[in-house]
Amino acid sequence: MKNYIKNNTEAVEEYLSGLTSLELVDMWNEYAREHNSDREIFSNDEDFFNTYFDNRVMDAVRAIFYGDYNYSHEFVMFNGYANLETTSSPEEWIDISELAQAIIDNPGDFYDIELEDEDEETE
Question: pTM surpassing 0.90?
Answer without folding.
Answer: no
